[in-house]
Amino acid sequence: MTGEKNTDLGARVYTNEGQSALYNFWRREMVDYNTYDLIVESTDINDVIDSIETEDLGDHIYFGPQADIMERLNRFNTQYHADLEITKTFKWKRGTYDKVANLMMRGLGFERKPSGMYNFLSREDYFRLNRWDWIKTELREMDNMITNLRYYNEEWLDDPSILVEYKDTFKNYLSEQGEKVAPVADGIDMYNSIWYRLYAHPSSRSNQRYILNTSIIFSPPAIKVYSSANTRAQTEATHIADIPCDMQIELNIISYPIKDMITNKLSYDNPRFNTYNYGLVYPFDDRGRLKFPYISGNHYRDSGNIFGNSVCWGDDATNISNAMGRYDLTSLLIQIPNWATRYTNNTNPYHNIKASYHGEPKVINDDFRAIFGTSTPDECFYTPSGEDDYCDTAECALRSRCSMYKDAYPQPVSPEQAEQLTLQWATRMGGINTSTGNIHGGEMPIQGDREQDWPDESPQGDEM
């Protein structure tokens, strides 16, 4: 990869050149992932945390509780040519209301020289229809932000050197979590690896300057399918089938380390991490796309987010969210297998279980069909190549009706089929005289006719 430097075993450090960027993030006011660069990735979280620069952080970012409001206020002032300020007690500075009034009057444009009465009186309508609501929304949302900061008794952080101490405590906690989870991941067969990645924004001045990505990669052996009469049934659900899970799952947890450092300060007795999670699906066989029931996305369009699509946690949502909110990877890895390998007919995830396999493999039984129905060739997105295909290895029952399979595996033609094909071709070419068997449709020519029409011009023709 362009811009990559190899350092230690298991760690890769990246320069800014040639980096594939992250894609759009859908939530308003969150940082656009497309503007971040990958700095380092490693199987050791210490390599990642060490790459976070805190010594001179105060020189080029807003930090502390004031970071978000200061970056937003700076953006507002730049966009609208304003000069609004807040105090260190999170209140608007004296004279702010006069500045807002002047800002609005400039927008109305009454001070500019008009070209006529109609134009002069139309300026207010244009401004109110276009910029008034935008400015009003921004100011009200910033006002809510500083009100919340006062409500929670947040203190303005002036000394950036405290971030060095915050980082050390933060690193110790995450390093401890990484050490705890390693034997758990090794002890559960479905887990492949855990990677940690650090991304940095080249110009952000907020506490979202860095992104920490924790990537958990696993391959569920099978999805156990259960049948239950309803969600309130007192009896246990009945196990009806095991669907092989021919795909690898990548669960991506996203957090902002600077923000988490400042939130937790020097105590991690009750840690709080602001996390987001996404999922990616990689089928083992790239000749057909599969969908995991609990990760969104379809055959034609994904979210455009390199971290993946939305994840449905179902009944496990509370416990898994709590584990992520504490960055308790051990608890998370213990809970994931039950979530990833269980499917009940009365659940309503992103995808039906039938999207997790191709066609109608042999493992599908009558109990399964009675609930989920039988697949058809039109529902299958697998494209056989003619060699080691899923269709044969899974003994798909649709092979005799699947045009894609027939194209990849054309059947040999028997003598009877060859004769029938010949008759069909002859019919299209002019018909058949059934009384003589002549495919030309006329009388059988005799050899003499040929000799009279085309006499032999060879020198020995008279002697023959």
What does it look like?
The chain is an alpha+beta fold. The protein has 4 domains: 65-155, no CATH class; 162-355, no CATH class; 368-408, no CATH class; 415-453, no CATH class. It is 36% helix and 14% strand. The protein has helices at 45-50, 57-60, 67-80, 96-108, 117-151, 162-187, 257-264, 317-325, 329-340, 366-372, 390-393, 403-408, 415-429, 447-453; strands spanning 4-6, 11-14, 37-42, 191-200, 210-218, 222-227, 238-244, 247-255, 275-283, 342-344. The strands form 2 sheets. It has a 7-stranded antiparallel β-sheet. The chain has a 3-stranded mixed β-sheet with strand order 7-6-10. Strand 1 and strand 2 form a beta hairpin. Helix 6 (162-187) crosses helix 7, helix 6 crosses helix 9 and helix 8 packs antiparallel against helix 9. The chain is extended, with a radius of gyration of 35 Å.
Concise synopsis of the structure shown:
This protein has 464 residues and is an alpha+beta fold. The protein contains 14 helices and 10 strands. The chain folds into 4 domains: 65-155, no CATH class; 162-355, no CATH class; 368-408, no CATH class; 415-453, no CATH class.
Shape: extended
The proportion of strand residues reads 5-15%
Question: What separation lies between the terminal Cα atoms?
Answer: 81 Å
Mean pLDDT: 80
The strands making up the biggest β-sheet line up spatially as 1-2-3-4-5-8-9
Please bin the fraction of helical residues.
Answer: 25-40%
Given as residue ranges, the uncertain stretches (5+ residues, pLDDT < 50) are 1-10, 14-30, 434-464
With helices defined by DSSP (H or I, 4 residues minimum), what is the helix count? 14
Q: Kindly name the structural category.
A: alpha+beta
| Largest beta-sheet characterization | 7 strands, antiparallel
The radius of gyration over CA amounts to 35 Å
- The sequence of SSEs as H and E is EEEHHHHHHEEEEEHEHHEHHHHH
Our count of domains comes out at 4
How many E strands? 10
